[in-house]
Structures
1.
Amino acid sequence: MDTPIRKLLLRSKNFNPNREMLLPFLMDNNLNFLEEERNFIKQIYKDALKDSGLNDAQKELKAESYYSENYNNK
């Protein structure tokens, strides 16, 4: 499974010879990494609801609620 942390590690390999650029890269892309993590967690939650009988909009609302309650401000 292609997780956000795996993607980050693969991207960071590009900075191996140029390590002083890794920290600015991470800082510049912080919001992108957080968004990828958010979408990943929500997708796992929606996948867990596949047999629940809910429509896609309801699954999205439940996933957003789950993420907000468990991962925001941590």
Note: The chain has a mean pLDDT of 86.
2.
Amino acid sequence: MITRPHVRFWVAAVMLGAVCTGCNTTKLAADQPSAPSSASAPRYGAPSAPPQLAATNPPASAVHEQQKEALVPSIQKTEPSEAPKSPPAASADKKVETSSDTKPPESKPGVAAVEAYTAKKPSLMGIRLTDTRTAVKKKFNDPVSEFEMDDEQDSVTVCEYEGFSVGFNASGTVEFIEITSKDVNPGLNGLRLGQKVKDAESALGKPDTNTTYAMHYKADGTILKLDIDPKTESIQSIKLFAGSK
């Protein structure tokens, strides 16, 4: 086959044009940025958009809890403070002690109730001068201590009890009774050691003998002697003994 020279020239020109066109297309494709593969892949160098969250309504229980929490502080603020409690009122039947209600101290435990002093039956601690040692022991049990006291006429055994003492002669009968503590009730209508002269007069009446230092009450062959402190006019000792003493 014989090819003409001008035909070959046109064929070469067409091929050259096709090659040039393909090169330009490739260059444009390289220069043009490719579209993002997905909406979640941002372009390099550009700030990423925050992901879109699906709008959902919270459950009713969550809303209720939020409303409850919001109300708690306001309730606590408006709640009134607790008023201070007043002390309980004293019982109506509880007597309030006043100075006028003050009583002498109670008698020592173990001391029996004593017979009151009278002019017909003079006694101290319920003991009379005619009582025997056996009778006193039966009433007050054994003494705390005892000792012998020499007397010009006869020896005397002194038995000491809590708050008083008793002297017995050789025949075993009572020689004297002496009060040694204000804690015991000697049986003188409420009169005790430490009280005043006016208290003695209120309890026993006017004495048979009254000096600055002593008061004497005589009854049935006995003498009840109250020794007085002249400065305070208080009773310092109380003693019952036979009239000859």
Note: The CA atoms of residues 80 and 115 lie 66 Å apart.
3.
Amino acid sequence: MSFLLANGHHNAALYPVARIFLEAELVRERLDAERADAAVLMQLTVGSLMDKQTAKDFTKRIGEMTGNGR
């Protein structure tokens, strides 16, 4: 329950048990996706220091993430 509360589910104490498990899985998936994005950005950041194409990929990825690349 504290996992949900810590991730913005202020009414988690009122959720039925089945919904707690469902919401916890959704939060876990969202956090995993955020961590994966952070890892990709870190890799692109380091790579962009050594390679011009990687620097372009980094700029493109940031644009996609911020909505400027569409």
Note: The radius of gyration is 18 Å.
4.
Amino acid sequence: MCVLAIVALTAAVGRVWYGAPYRTADPAEAAERIQERSQRAYDLLRLPEPVAPAWNFLDHRVCRDRGLHNVTGDPEPGVMAPEHRWGVDGVSEGVARPALDRLRQRLTGQGWEHIHEREARGPGLVETGFRFEDPASGDTLDARWNSARGALFVDVRAPCARVPHSLADASRDLFDRAPDRPFPDGTTTGTQE
């Protein structure tokens, strides 16, 4: 009995010290999924045509080692979180608010969890937006508009996951590029926010 308690305690301390392991996922599948979600978000916003794309970028974030032993927050090798970021300039508040409301209602209706609401007003600045998370996949969607630029921004992110060794080389070419979606005429730009 004492041996089992020592083994259980050692495992628990190890999990806290080294952190829970990241799940393994194919980055190409995650990139495709978040681009599809981006496209659906764009379609739901129903922005008046023609749109003025500000940027459209498929990228990935580094993920930090989660354990207490990593007090410096060093990146975890072989772990990434794909993200698709895009924005549209020239969107008025009168267009942005109903568009964001449509997107919010759809995400809520599909069972996404509301994580954060953003509403700020200051001298010459209005900003509004939100973040939702899909509980099934862990994907997040941020949508926001600000008056300083008259721009609407959408970021769709997959959660951090370990890239299988067999896919490590192939995953390098997936990111740091301008994808074809979500803009209807295929307009792409690698310009970042």
Note: The first strand starts at residue 52 and ends at 64.
